[in-house]
Structure formats: structure tokens, C-alpha cells
Amino acid sequence: MRRRALDPDLVASTIEKLCLRVETRFPGSGLARVCRELEGIARRTAQTTAWIARPILALRLAVGLLAALLLAVLALSVASLRLRLSPESLTELVQGLESGINDVIFVGAFLFFLVTLETRIKRRRALRAIHELRSIAHVIDMHQLTKDPEWVLDRGRETGVLPPRTMSRFELSRYLDYCSEALSLTGKVAALYVRDFDDPVALQAVNEVEDLTTGLSRKVWQKLSILYAMGPETSPAGPPAAGA
After folding, report:
1. Distance of CA 112 to the CA centre of its chain
2. Is the pLDDT of residue 241 over 50?
3. Are residues 80 and 151 in the same domain?
């Protein structure tokens, strides 16, 4: 059966199409620049996830050699302890056992450090990239922050602090919909990092990004619900097709 998983190339291609739609509808806008930045991150994500999925052979070889050396030292310590199994006093036996137990604990802890070193290296790189996606999500939210339905409901008197609000109802709905799509795709890019990397810490970070983007997208859809409740606009603005 074919494995069901996100394809990094298809995710990046979907983001590229979103970029074209935003640039066609709102050329030169800040949202268009953010979408292009998200596309660049998605392209790099494909390379990063491929690197994470590959084993670090040089590191594994070095870890194997060190582990073998430590086990050899431990074996010599155990052999040395056996030679002293007939001590002249109980104190010498206790001291020998204590020394052997300490050696075992130390070697076990160091072996655990070596075995998990590759995972921690990959985790650090994944978390750094996931943090970048978290920042992108907040930037997208900033772009939709001032895009309120009251622009087309009842403009009132402008304060002059913000740039002139010239969007029609249709354009505003398209802008908010693009923001919602960009947030959703940000979560999909984050999910790519745990596609082939079964790490609980990275998975938790991805879940946090997905929760963040879902929450921010919910705010966008609250605005869209108000716009859709107003019914169709009498004269849609802009040359592109309504479904773009």
C-alpha cells in the first residue's frame, strides 16, 4: 500500500501558486512578499528534511568506536574486580563493588549520550527551522490584523494614521482568504519536519505551530464570516477571475 505522507515538493508548489495569486490580485503588497518568503522556507525545508532523514554515517562510526572502547575498558574493570573476589576483608570487597558499580553507571550514561547524539543534532536543526515558521505565522497575522469588515460596512471617519483603505468587499475577502491559506500552509511546512523524524520534542514543536496557525486562521475566518453574511457584492472589483 502506498504510504500517505506530505510531499515537500507539492507543498512548495502549492505555496508558489498562492504567491502568484496574491501577486496578481495585490501586486507589490506586503502579503505577497511574505508568501514568497514562505515559499523560500518551503524549498529549504525539502533539503533540510532530506538531511534529517539520512543517517550521519561518520558520526555513527565514531560513536560505535567510542562505545566499543568504553565497553572494553568496562570489561577490563570487571575482570580486575573478579581477581579481588577473595579479599582479606569485607571492606575491600565493598570498595571493589562500589568502584565497579560507579564504572557501570558512568559508562552507561556516556553510552546513552553517544547514542542519542545524532538525534539531538537533528532535533536542534529541526527546532531552529520550526521556530522560523512560528515567526512567519505571526507576520502573516500582522498583515490581516487591520483588515476589518467594518471597512466596507461603515467606514466612518478615517483617523489618518493608517494608509487609505481602498479595498472593496470582494478584495478584502480575497485578502483574508489568502492569509488563511498562508497560515494553513505554514502548518503543513512544519509538519514536514516530523514526516521521517520520529522525535517527541520536534513533534511537540510542530503541534504548537499547527495550534498557532489554526488559532490565527480562526480569527481570519471570523472576519470572513461577517463578509459572507453580507451577501454578494453588486460590482466585484479587479480584473482577475472571482475564484483566483
Report:
1. 26
2. no
3. no
Judge whether 83 lies within some domain: yes
pTM here is 0.73
155 phi and psi, to 5 degrees?
-60, -40
Mean pLDDT in residue range 113-140: 89
Give the lowest-confidence range in 27-41, 48-62, 200-214. Answer: 48-62
- Please check whether residues 127 and 207 belong to one and the same domain: yes
Confidence of residue 183 (pLDDT cuts 50, 70, 90): very high
Q: Which residue blocks in the chain are alpha helix, DSSP H?
A: 8-25, 30-53, 57-83, 90-115, 117-145, 150-153, 169-191, 200-229
Give the burial string for 136-171 (b: 16+ CB within 10 Å, else e). Answer: bbebbbebbeebebebbeeeeeeeeeeeeeebebbb
Distance in angstroms (rounded) separating the CA atoms of residues 173 and 168? 9
